[in-house]
Amino acid sequence: MAAPLAFAPESAFAQEPAFDTPAVLSLVRQARELRESPPLPSASVAYKARAEGHVYFYLDRDDGGEPVPMRVDQVAVDLFRSGDGRTRQVIRGLRRQELLPIQDFRYYIDRLTAVQNGFGDRIAIGEGRDVRDVPHPLGSEGEDTYHYRIVDSLTVSAPTLPGPIKVYELEVHPRDEATPALIGSVFVEADTGALVRMLFTFTPASYVDPRSDRITVRLEHALWEETLWLPYRQVVEVRREIPQLDLPVGSVIRATLEVTGYEFDPVMEPGFFRGPRVTMVPYGAADSSAFRAGLMDRMAEEGLSPVSMARIEAEVRRQARTRLVSGLPRMRVHADAVSSVLRVNRAEGMHFGLGTSFAPRDRFRLVALAGYQSSPGTFSGTLRARLTTEDGLTTTTIDLYDRQLRDAGPRTATSGAVNTLSTLLRGVDYTDPYFASGLRLGVEREIGDGASITIRGRVEGLSGASTLWTRGLGSAADQRPLRPVGEGVFVGADSQLRYRWAGVPTWGAEAAAVATLGRWDGGGNLTLLARLDTRFAARDLSRRVNLKAEAGTAWGTLPQQMLFFVGGRGTLPGHGFRAFGGHRFVMTTGEAAFALVPGWLTARLLAGAGVVGSTSDALREDWGVTSTGGLRGYGGVGLGTLYDILRIDGAWGLPGGSFEVILSIDPRLRPYL
Description:
mainly beta; 18-stranded mixed sheet; Porin; single chain; 3 domains; 34 strands; 7 helices
């Protein structure tokens, strides 16, 4: 049986360990000889084992937001090994579920199978289409390719072991980063040189697919029969982006597999190992008894929790140090979102924009964006520098911007792309726009699993739109006038504390509190904002409930556009668009969705309520808003299609509101639009 192991880290080195010392090279050679030597009859091992795992395909946001799952696959595999080292794997079960409408594709076979020998002399990922011909650090070309040093040691203990086992962590770095090689750590048993664990990424020269941003591999072995280190768990994560275009999103394939239930010296049919190395059943051919876990059961634990992903990436970054591990070009065309390339609104008219990004090294990126605003005939631009520390916990961002488009709050009513269509086709612009030009400095620090603190300071000049664009296809009568905004220099500093509980897909929540101190028009001001977002879902995602609560208060002298406005789309539908405004607000909104025809038709329920108060006379006169005069709310129903991406809802404003029809897109996709 497998020993219940306890890994105990030992004391750290008093000084930075040196590379390629006689002790570490002796350990590397011992491990290589063990891998290359044919097994002795007394040490040969034949086994049968069972493995089960999942493959997750999802969108990964650059801003650290919650990933968007698109497809989940589950695999059940039987592993076999003969006494002379031959291996075979039989995939007994395969099933999948699409969570977004995506093109069908086949995974490479090594996404669905286990690494039984700690990789061969040459490492390949994705059947050699992601990575190929990378020398193994414990292989025959290892010493010619890598530098090694011992950076840590662990003691493995268990009640069934005759004594503790010492394991060394060997940090591995390529001698030439311009060649295919891995960067990471290899853990080996001190006495025997047996491979215990591998954790690594690759140099850019290793990547075959030009879409590869990064590939990380985690390979773990467990101790069986007191002497046998055999496959236990593996995680392979492949992140891709469009190589020519730098967008704030990438796609990730995360393949996990866990091996258990070893049976030693099984009786096999003659000629069994002369068959194909891997055989598989078609998708859906196996019944549910082939799987021990549900298809969606382990998404939070294994694949889609932002918290767990942050921990894994931080560990890989620690191994890679400051080296450039991305396989993408250092310079690319850049766009913040679809609407940063083309958008339409009343203030800018048609805005055309594009930019470029340059990454001179890993975790440091420069971005330049430029745009043209057709209505005033002016140009806009942004220069941005972003630096992330080696441990991945702190990010510093500096922005220098001119005529950056802003909208009144506390939240935007829709995405830039949807607002563009509404302005063009209906003449209805769901923004109250103004412009900002200035300098902003921000530092974000991860302070624990799921927690972060952000401190920002800015000095910026605020200005309103000079002309009203009215060339859309809608009636001019539907076009709202531009609301007057405060113009001048605003100086502010804010801090945000955020905590995220991750339980994708069945449960998730995020809480944030923001405090802003500012100075405007000779007077000081303070703004406090708090919000709580929660989500609940059935494991198969057929039923979902989203709840959101927000509150804010402001004191002192503020430009009017920085106060709180609610009503209509995005806040309280069924009431006039941003008909209520003031220095205080509280609002709760919620929606429930039920799949009627999975993937094609979803029933929706929505409701919410809010209060806005402390409305000044100047705000009433300039913006034509009032306080809510008590609680205002709404209730409604709707339908969604294409996995609830496209939605049409109808809401009634209560009390004294009207009926409003809302066409929208899944809010998870809003950052990309």
